[in-house]
Predict the 3D structure of the following.
Amino acid sequence: MEEKNVVSKVHKIQITNRKNGSFTGILDVLSFDINEILLETEQGMLHVKGKDLHVNRLNLEKGEVDIEGMLEAFSYSQVPLSVKKGDGFLGKIFH
């Protein structure tokens, strides 16, 4: 039986002056609006809160997201089972 080598992406957050954020280790963007962005990461769900938030760059192949706006809070939680089954925001758009 052939073994698959699973390489997980490193999850990293870099914030500049609370106005720009670069994120790695991103698996999916589940939802976003001007006040909240919900990201599925290698480390669980990441909920970003702020004002006037925008996703500037998204590259899911590399697992990278750049956002801008007034960044106010970040919190992590576990990934719900329904999300793990491919019910993500972008998955719904491209079905």
Summary: The chain has a mean pLDDT of 83. Helices lie at 81-84, 89-93.
